[in-house]
Amino acid sequence: MSDNVARRGFLIGGLGGAALLAAGCTSNEPAASGPTSAAPAPAQASGGNDQPGTKVTIGFSAPAADHGWIAAIAKNAEATAKQYTDIDFKPVEPTNDINQQISAVETLIQAKVNALVILPNDGQQLNQVALQATEAGIPVVNLDRIFPDKLAYRTWVGGDNYGMGVAAGHYIGKQLKDKGVSNPVIVEIQGIATLPLTQDRSKGFADALKTYGFSVTAKQDAQFTVETGNEVATSLLQAHKKIDAMWNHDDDQGVGVLAAIKEASRNEFIMVGGAGSLNAMREIQSGNSVLKATVTYSPTMASSAIKLARLIAQGKGMSDLVENTVPQSITLASETITKENVEKYLALGFES
Protein backbone atom coordinates (compact mmCIF):
# COMPACT_ATOMS: atom_id res chain seq x y z
CA MET A 1 0.00 0.00 0.00
CA SER A 2 1.28 4.21 -1.07
CA ASP A 3 -0.56 3.44 2.12
CA ASN A 4 -2.74 1.68 -0.46
CA VAL A 5 -2.97 -1.73 1.08
CA ALA A 6 -3.69 -2.17 4.74
CA ARG A 7 -1.39 -3.88 7.17
CA ARG A 8 -1.75 -6.33 9.84
CA GLY A 9 -2.33 -6.83 13.63
CA PHE A 10 -3.02 -9.53 16.13
CA LEU A 11 -5.55 -10.03 18.88
CA ILE A 12 -6.81 -13.05 20.77
CA GLY A 13 -9.98 -13.24 22.80
CA GLY A 14 -11.65 -10.03 21.63
CA LEU A 15 -11.50 -7.02 23.91
CA GLY A 16 -10.23 -9.01 26.88
CA GLY A 17 -7.13 -9.86 24.86
CA ALA A 18 -6.69 -6.24 23.82
CA ALA A 19 -6.88 -5.20 27.44
CA LEU A 20 -4.14 -7.57 28.44
CA LEU A 21 -1.95 -6.23 25.67
CA ALA A 22 -2.75 -2.64 26.48
CA ALA A 23 -1.86 -2.65 30.14
CA GLY A 24 0.18 -4.60 32.61
CA CYS A 25 -2.28 -4.16 35.49
CA THR A 26 -5.94 -5.05 35.16
CA SER A 27 -8.90 -5.49 37.44
CA ASN A 28 -8.22 -9.24 37.34
CA GLU A 29 -5.17 -8.84 39.60
CA PRO A 30 -5.69 -10.59 42.97
CA ALA A 31 -6.19 -8.24 45.88
CA ALA A 32 -3.30 -7.83 48.31
CA SER A 33 -3.87 -9.32 51.76
CA GLY A 34 -4.77 -7.00 54.60
CA PRO A 35 -6.82 -3.78 54.64
CA THR A 36 -7.00 -1.59 51.55
CA SER A 37 -7.83 2.05 51.11
CA ALA A 38 -9.15 4.00 48.15
CA ALA A 39 -8.66 1.06 45.79
CA PRO A 40 -10.21 1.89 42.39
CA ALA A 41 -13.04 -0.40 41.31
CA PRO A 42 -13.30 -1.66 37.75
CA ALA A 43 -15.79 0.14 35.53
CA GLN A 44 -17.87 -3.03 35.17
CA ALA A 45 -17.71 -6.68 36.06
CA SER A 46 -16.03 -8.86 33.47
CA GLY A 47 -18.34 -9.46 30.53
CA GLY A 48 -20.72 -6.66 31.54
CA ASN A 49 -19.77 -4.52 28.57
CA ASP A 50 -21.33 -7.02 26.19
CA GLN A 51 -24.77 -6.44 27.68
CA PRO A 52 -27.02 -4.21 25.47
CA GLY A 53 -26.63 -0.51 26.17
CA THR A 54 -27.42 2.80 24.54
CA LYS A 55 -28.07 2.44 20.81
CA VAL A 56 -25.14 3.87 18.86
CA THR A 57 -24.42 4.39 15.17
CA ILE A 58 -20.90 3.46 14.08
CA GLY A 59 -19.59 4.58 10.70
CA PHE A 60 -16.93 2.49 8.98
CA SER A 61 -14.54 3.33 6.14
CA ALA A 62 -11.70 1.25 4.70
CA PRO A 63 -9.89 0.68 1.39
CA ALA A 64 -11.31 -1.58 -1.31
CA ALA A 65 -11.05 -5.30 -0.67
CA ASP A 66 -8.50 -5.98 -3.40
CA HIS A 67 -6.70 -8.71 -1.48
CA GLY A 68 -7.27 -11.13 1.37
CA TRP A 69 -6.22 -9.05 4.34
CA ILE A 70 -8.36 -6.03 3.44
CA ALA A 71 -11.32 -8.27 2.64
CA ALA A 72 -10.99 -9.81 6.10
CA ILE A 73 -10.85 -6.34 7.71
CA ALA A 74 -14.27 -5.42 6.31
CA LYS A 75 -15.73 -8.87 7.02
CA ASN A 76 -14.55 -8.84 10.64
CA ALA A 77 -15.87 -5.33 11.27
CA GLU A 78 -19.33 -6.16 9.93
CA ALA A 79 -19.53 -9.52 11.70
CA THR A 80 -18.62 -7.97 15.05
CA ALA A 81 -21.13 -5.13 14.65
CA LYS A 82 -23.88 -7.69 14.00
CA GLN A 83 -23.18 -9.33 17.36
CA TYR A 84 -24.58 -6.26 19.14
CA THR A 85 -28.23 -5.25 19.09
CA ASP A 86 -27.22 -1.75 20.21
CA ILE A 87 -25.03 -1.05 17.13
CA ASP A 88 -26.36 0.50 13.94
CA PHE A 89 -23.49 -0.22 11.54
CA LYS A 90 -23.01 2.23 8.66
CA PRO A 91 -20.20 1.23 6.29
CA VAL A 92 -19.45 3.40 3.29
CA GLU A 93 -18.33 2.16 -0.12
CA PRO A 94 -14.74 0.93 0.16
CA THR A 95 -12.31 2.64 -2.19
CA ASN A 96 -8.61 3.00 -2.94
CA ASP A 97 -9.16 6.55 -4.16
CA ILE A 98 -8.07 9.10 -1.53
CA ASN A 99 -10.60 11.77 -2.53
CA GLN A 100 -13.45 9.28 -2.62
CA GLN A 101 -12.60 8.05 0.86
CA ILE A 102 -12.50 11.62 2.15
CA SER A 103 -15.94 12.28 0.62
CA ALA A 104 -17.32 9.07 2.09
CA VAL A 105 -16.11 9.98 5.58
CA GLU A 106 -17.63 13.45 5.18
CA THR A 107 -21.04 11.84 4.53
CA LEU A 108 -20.71 9.95 7.80
CA ILE A 109 -19.84 13.17 9.62
CA GLN A 110 -22.89 14.86 8.09
CA ALA A 111 -25.02 11.90 9.18
CA LYS A 112 -23.85 12.60 12.76
CA VAL A 113 -22.82 9.06 13.57
CA ASN A 114 -21.86 8.40 17.20
CA ALA A 115 -18.41 7.07 16.37
CA LEU A 116 -16.21 6.44 13.34
CA VAL A 117 -13.84 3.57 12.60
CA ILE A 118 -11.44 4.54 9.84
CA LEU A 119 -8.69 2.55 8.17
CA PRO A 120 -7.30 5.26 5.88
CA ASN A 121 -5.75 4.59 2.51
CA ASP A 122 -3.19 7.17 3.60
CA GLY A 123 -3.09 8.48 7.15
CA GLN A 124 -1.41 11.73 6.15
CA GLN A 125 -3.92 12.54 3.42
CA LEU A 126 -7.00 11.68 5.47
CA ASN A 127 -5.75 13.43 8.60
CA GLN A 128 -7.79 16.58 7.90
CA VAL A 129 -11.14 14.81 7.50
CA ALA A 130 -10.49 12.84 10.71
CA LEU A 131 -9.86 16.18 12.45
CA GLN A 132 -13.19 17.40 11.08
CA ALA A 133 -14.94 14.43 12.65
CA THR A 134 -13.27 15.02 16.01
CA GLU A 135 -14.13 18.73 15.91
CA ALA A 136 -17.74 17.74 15.19
CA GLY A 137 -17.75 15.74 18.41
CA ILE A 138 -17.49 12.33 16.74
CA PRO A 139 -14.82 10.10 18.30
CA VAL A 140 -12.59 8.41 15.72
CA VAL A 141 -11.09 4.95 16.19
CA ASN A 142 -8.06 4.98 13.91
CA LEU A 143 -7.46 1.46 12.61
CA ASP A 144 -3.97 0.34 11.54
CA ARG A 145 -2.45 3.16 9.43
CA ILE A 146 -2.13 6.03 11.85
CA PHE A 147 -3.13 9.67 11.44
CA PRO A 148 -0.09 11.87 12.15
CA ASP A 149 -2.09 14.31 14.30
CA LYS A 150 -3.14 12.80 17.64
CA LEU A 151 -6.02 15.29 17.74
CA ALA A 152 -7.48 13.46 14.73
CA TYR A 153 -8.39 10.32 16.67
CA ARG A 154 -9.68 9.24 20.05
CA THR A 155 -8.05 5.79 20.00
CA TRP A 156 -5.63 4.02 17.69
CA VAL A 157 -5.53 0.23 17.42
CA GLY A 158 -3.15 -1.64 15.17
CA GLY A 159 -0.29 -4.04 14.84
CA ASP A 160 3.36 -3.85 15.81
CA ASN A 161 5.25 -3.46 12.55
CA TYR A 162 8.65 -3.17 14.23
CA GLY A 163 7.74 -6.22 16.30
CA MET A 164 6.94 -8.18 13.13
CA GLY A 165 10.48 -7.57 11.91
CA VAL A 166 11.95 -8.49 15.28
CA ALA A 167 9.97 -11.75 15.38
CA ALA A 168 11.02 -12.70 11.85
CA GLY A 169 14.65 -11.77 12.54
CA HIS A 170 14.85 -13.83 15.71
CA TYR A 171 13.28 -16.88 14.07
CA ILE A 172 15.70 -16.75 11.13
CA GLY A 173 18.68 -15.84 13.28
CA LYS A 174 18.15 -18.73 15.68
CA GLN A 175 17.53 -21.25 12.92
CA LEU A 176 20.74 -20.30 11.11
CA LYS A 177 22.81 -20.17 14.31
CA ASP A 178 21.56 -23.61 15.33
CA LYS A 179 22.65 -24.94 11.92
CA GLY A 180 26.07 -23.36 12.33
CA VAL A 181 25.66 -21.14 9.27
CA SER A 182 28.15 -18.29 8.97
CA ASN A 183 27.88 -15.33 6.58
CA PRO A 184 24.38 -16.33 5.46
CA VAL A 185 22.65 -14.96 2.38
CA ILE A 186 19.44 -13.42 3.73
CA VAL A 187 16.96 -11.78 1.34
CA GLU A 188 13.99 -9.63 2.28
CA ILE A 189 10.87 -8.98 0.22
CA GLN A 190 9.15 -5.84 1.50
CA GLY A 191 5.69 -4.46 0.83
CA ILE A 192 6.06 -0.86 -0.32
CA ALA A 193 9.49 0.49 0.62
CA THR A 194 8.39 4.13 1.05
CA LEU A 195 5.79 3.38 3.73
CA PRO A 196 6.71 4.01 7.38
CA LEU A 197 5.17 0.65 8.31
CA THR A 198 7.47 -1.13 5.85
CA GLN A 199 10.47 0.78 7.14
CA ASP A 200 9.55 -0.20 10.71
CA ARG A 201 9.36 -3.85 9.69
CA SER A 202 12.72 -3.71 7.97
CA LYS A 203 14.35 -1.95 10.93
CA GLY A 204 13.03 -4.54 13.37
CA PHE A 205 14.31 -7.32 11.13
CA ALA A 206 17.77 -5.76 10.80
CA ASP A 207 18.01 -5.05 14.54
CA ALA A 208 17.12 -8.64 15.45
CA LEU A 209 19.51 -10.15 12.89
CA LYS A 210 22.29 -7.96 14.24
CA THR A 211 22.10 -9.72 17.60
CA TYR A 212 23.20 -12.91 15.80
CA GLY A 213 25.91 -11.14 13.83
CA PHE A 214 23.86 -11.32 10.61
CA SER A 215 22.60 -8.73 8.13
CA VAL A 216 20.31 -8.56 5.11
CA THR A 217 22.12 -9.37 1.84
CA ALA A 218 19.46 -7.97 -0.51
CA LYS A 219 15.96 -6.54 -0.24
CA GLN A 220 13.33 -5.44 -2.72
CA ASP A 221 9.75 -4.26 -2.40
CA ALA A 222 6.81 -6.11 -3.97
CA GLN A 223 3.90 -3.64 -3.56
CA PHE A 224 1.77 -6.07 -1.52
CA THR A 225 0.50 -7.80 -4.68
CA VAL A 226 0.68 -11.43 -5.80
CA GLU A 227 1.96 -10.47 -9.25
CA THR A 228 4.78 -8.26 -8.02
CA GLY A 229 5.63 -10.77 -5.31
CA ASN A 230 6.14 -13.34 -8.05
CA GLU A 231 8.29 -10.99 -10.13
CA VAL A 232 10.48 -9.86 -7.23
CA ALA A 233 11.02 -13.38 -5.92
CA THR A 234 11.96 -14.57 -9.42
CA SER A 235 14.49 -11.74 -9.70
CA LEU A 236 16.04 -12.45 -6.28
CA LEU A 237 16.25 -16.18 -6.97
CA GLN A 238 18.02 -15.53 -10.24
CA ALA A 239 20.44 -13.07 -8.63
CA HIS A 240 21.37 -15.41 -5.75
CA LYS A 241 22.19 -18.98 -6.69
CA LYS A 242 22.22 -19.92 -3.01
CA ILE A 243 20.03 -18.39 -0.32
CA ASP A 244 19.95 -19.29 3.37
CA ALA A 245 16.83 -17.42 4.48
CA MET A 246 14.06 -15.22 3.09
CA TRP A 247 11.61 -12.94 4.87
CA ASN A 248 8.52 -11.95 2.92
CA HIS A 249 6.63 -9.15 4.71
CA ASP A 250 3.15 -10.11 3.52
CA ASP A 251 1.36 -13.44 3.10
CA ASP A 252 -0.92 -12.08 0.35
CA GLN A 253 2.04 -11.19 -1.87
CA GLY A 254 3.58 -14.41 -0.55
CA VAL A 255 1.23 -16.40 -2.83
CA GLY A 256 3.27 -15.06 -5.75
CA VAL A 257 6.55 -15.49 -3.90
CA LEU A 258 5.88 -19.17 -3.18
CA ALA A 259 4.81 -19.76 -6.79
CA ALA A 260 8.13 -18.35 -7.99
CA ILE A 261 10.07 -20.54 -5.56
CA LYS A 262 8.23 -23.67 -6.71
CA GLU A 263 8.70 -22.71 -10.36
CA ALA A 264 12.45 -22.36 -9.77
CA SER A 265 12.57 -25.66 -7.86
CA ARG A 266 14.47 -24.02 -5.01
CA ASN A 267 14.31 -25.43 -1.49
CA GLU A 268 17.73 -24.82 0.04
CA PHE A 269 16.52 -21.99 2.29
CA ILE A 270 13.96 -21.29 5.01
CA MET A 271 11.25 -18.68 4.52
CA VAL A 272 9.22 -16.63 6.99
CA GLY A 273 5.99 -14.88 6.01
CA GLY A 274 3.99 -12.04 7.50
CA ALA A 275 0.36 -11.54 8.62
CA GLY A 276 -1.00 -15.03 9.25
CA SER A 277 -3.06 -16.05 6.21
CA LEU A 278 -4.70 -19.46 6.09
CA ASN A 279 -2.82 -20.49 2.96
CA ALA A 280 0.47 -19.62 4.69
CA MET A 281 -0.59 -21.64 7.74
CA ARG A 282 -1.45 -24.62 5.56
CA GLU A 283 2.00 -24.42 3.91
CA ILE A 284 3.63 -24.37 7.34
CA GLN A 285 1.43 -27.21 8.57
CA SER A 286 2.34 -29.42 5.60
CA GLY A 287 6.01 -29.55 6.55
CA ASN A 288 6.83 -29.82 2.82
CA SER A 289 7.37 -26.13 2.11
CA VAL A 290 10.28 -23.70 2.46
CA LEU A 291 7.77 -21.58 4.43
CA LYS A 292 8.49 -22.53 8.02
CA ALA A 293 6.87 -19.66 9.93
CA THR A 294 4.80 -16.51 9.61
CA VAL A 295 4.60 -13.56 12.02
CA THR A 296 1.15 -12.27 12.88
CA TYR A 297 -0.53 -9.02 11.89
CA SER A 298 -4.11 -10.20 11.97
CA PRO A 299 -7.19 -8.46 10.52
CA THR A 300 -9.03 -9.34 13.74
CA MET A 301 -7.94 -5.82 14.73
CA ALA A 302 -11.05 -4.60 12.87
CA SER A 303 -13.29 -6.55 15.25
CA SER A 304 -11.54 -4.92 18.19
CA ALA A 305 -11.91 -1.47 16.61
CA ILE A 306 -15.69 -1.90 16.40
CA LYS A 307 -15.85 -3.06 20.03
CA LEU A 308 -13.75 -0.06 21.10
CA ALA A 309 -15.89 2.39 19.10
CA ARG A 310 -19.02 1.02 20.78
CA LEU A 311 -17.55 1.43 24.26
CA ILE A 312 -16.33 4.95 23.55
CA ALA A 313 -19.68 6.02 22.08
CA GLN A 314 -21.49 4.58 25.12
CA GLY A 315 -19.08 6.25 27.56
CA LYS A 316 -17.75 2.94 28.89
CA GLY A 317 -14.28 1.68 29.71
CA MET A 318 -12.74 -1.73 29.08
CA SER A 319 -14.02 -4.12 31.72
CA ASP A 320 -10.65 -5.84 32.21
CA LEU A 321 -8.98 -2.51 33.03
CA VAL A 322 -9.25 -0.43 36.17
CA GLU A 323 -9.54 2.84 34.24
CA ASN A 324 -12.98 4.22 33.37
CA THR A 325 -12.21 5.00 29.74
CA VAL A 326 -10.77 3.21 26.71
CA PRO A 327 -6.99 3.73 26.29
CA GLN A 328 -5.71 6.20 23.69
CA SER A 329 -3.52 3.64 21.97
CA ILE A 330 -3.45 -0.16 21.73
CA THR A 331 -0.57 -1.90 19.97
CA LEU A 332 -1.22 -5.56 19.32
CA ALA A 333 1.47 -8.20 19.68
CA SER A 334 3.20 -9.93 16.77
CA GLU A 335 3.54 -13.67 17.37
CA THR A 336 5.42 -16.35 15.47
CA ILE A 337 3.38 -19.19 13.95
CA THR A 338 5.29 -22.42 13.35
CA LYS A 339 4.34 -26.04 12.67
CA GLU A 340 4.38 -26.64 16.43
CA ASN A 341 1.67 -24.08 17.26
CA VAL A 342 -0.17 -23.49 13.97
CA GLU A 343 -3.35 -25.31 14.98
CA LYS A 344 -4.28 -22.74 17.61
CA TYR A 345 -4.04 -19.92 15.05
CA LEU A 346 -6.08 -21.47 12.22
CA ALA A 347 -9.35 -19.97 13.44
CA LEU A 348 -7.85 -16.47 13.17
CA GLY A 349 -6.44 -16.88 9.66
CA PHE A 350 -7.76 -15.27 6.48
CA GLU A 351 -7.86 -16.46 2.88
CA SER A 352 -5.42 -14.78 0.51
TrEMBL record:
Entry's Gene Ontology molecular function annotations: carbohydrate binding
Tell me if rRNA processing is a UniProt keyword of this record: no
Q: Where in the cell is it found?
A: Cell envelope
The record ties this protein, via SUPFAM superfamilies, to: Periplasmic binding protein-like I
Bias (Low complexity)? 29-48
Its main localization is: other
Tell me the ranges covered by the Periplasmic binding protein domain, including all copies: 58-316
Keyword Chaperone present in the record's keywords: the answer is no
Q: Which UniProt keywords apply?
A: Signal
Pfam families named among the record's database cross-references: Peripla_BP_4
- Give a GO cellular-component term: cell envelope
Q: Where is this region: Disordered?
A: 29-57
Family statement drawn from the similarity comment of this UniProt entry: Belongs to the bacterial solute-binding protein 2 family.
Designated name of the protein: Sugar ABC transporter substrate-binding protein
- What organism does the UniProt record list as the source? [Actinomadura] parvosata subsp. kistnae
